[in-house]
Amino acid sequence: xxxxxxxxxxxxxxxxxxALAARLRNRGDVVLVTREPGGxxxxxxxxxxxxxxxxxxxxxxxxxxxxxxxxxLVADVIAPALKDRAVVLCDxxxxxxxxxxxxxxxxxxxxxxxxxxTATQRIAPDLTFxxxxxxxxxxxxxxxxGGTDRLExxxxxxxxxxxxxxxxxxxxxxxxxxxxxxxxxxDLLVTAAFEAFERRRNGxxx
Length: 206
Ligand code: TMP
What we know:
single chain; binds thymidine-5'-phosphate; alpha/beta; 8 helices
């Protein structure tokens, strides 16, 4: 089962993924945690380039970098793990390209979906958590955390478009998206995610 985690910057995805992975492993699931861009030696190298604030990268070049990382991750890690019936928790997947490069940068959504599905061998998530926070909360958390990478430096209008993009995706793919409130405590967040995971595993989402 492929479970992906999406949201704007500093939504709390990483903390949630670690907590959910621990909970699933505790009761005996085989869980693999990975992320995008990254998750393979090639992907990790591409990630360094992608987030480097010193580089100027054209929007379509961003798409190609991200999908090179994605194609390698699916081929080497995700497809084999799914074959072994593991639960794969992936920090971002192709919805991020639609939200950031599509809604954020203005590239054509349908073309992006086709490029992404080619990169993933047409593998799509079974369940996608949108960890949702207001853009102002994201900005405040980033400031408190310090250090900003290339996309974190984009302005509020960009991040507002990305958030709206995620909501549009959640509506379009409502059979796999679950929106979680990222402003609640980490404990409440992981409980909500666990319950949605159990529902999805036992059948389609309501
Ligand atoms: P992360 O550190 O939140 O995991 O993500 C790294 C950055 O990459 C983040 O700013 C979002 C961006 N990104 C895209 O713009 N498009 C994508 O397809 C992915 C996977 C990430």
